[in-house]
């Protein structure tokens, strides 16, 4: 499976692509950071991010896109920009029929470091180690995009199994309720 990881942001938007192997083996295929000037009009900045994301999707053909979910930030303006950048990437993926998953920062940190409160340096160190990179990815947005893709690769199978189990339980519940309704109907007829 190929996963495109996205660390959304208006000034710097990290993009990565990794491929999963057997077990928890992951390989980095590409990583980059899209930069937009702070003095540029918002719509143009979002267009630059969308264009880059679309190019990546069309070139790399990911099976899934993992985007950092905006959880909370003290600066509302930054949070809005981050959410808008993530939104244009999600839209580009949806137009191509590529599944999109959102992961919180603590889920990503926990997946790659084992600690949901890890700092950026710890995340970068573990991403470097997990992917067997010779050099730490910089800036932090690049490392975060790789961490998002790794997180998705490791969480997606578990989430899929949980969804299948929930669907099976729901189906079993429907059959049980239908059987109970039939028994009640037959009891009334007597």
What does this structure look like?
The chain is built from five helices and five strands. With 190 residues, the protein is of the alpha/beta class. It has one domain (2-162): 2-Layer Sandwich (Nucleotidyltransferase, domain 5), CATH 3.30.420. It has a five-stranded mixed β-sheet. Helix 1 (42-60) packs parallel to helix 2. The longest helix has 50 residues, at 140-189.
At CATH level 3, the topology is: Nucleotidyltransferase, domain 5
Helix/strand structural class: alpha/beta
What percent strand?
Answer: 15-25%
In CATH, what is the class?
Answer: Alpha Beta
Radius of gyration: 21 Å
Distance between the termini: 58 Å
Helix amount: 55-70%
Named CATH architecture: 2-Layer Sandwich
Number of helices in the DSSP assignment: 5
**3D shape:** elongated
Within CATH, the superfamily carries the name Ribonuclease H-like superfamily/Ribonuclease H
Give start-end ranges of low-pLDDT stretches: none
- Count up the domains: 1
Binding site for Mg(2+) 2: 68
EC number: 3.1.21.10
Protein name: Crossover junction endodeoxyribonuclease RuvC
Catalytic activity: Endonucleolytic cleavage at a junction such as a reciprocal single-stranded crossover between two homologous DNA duplexes (Holliday junction)
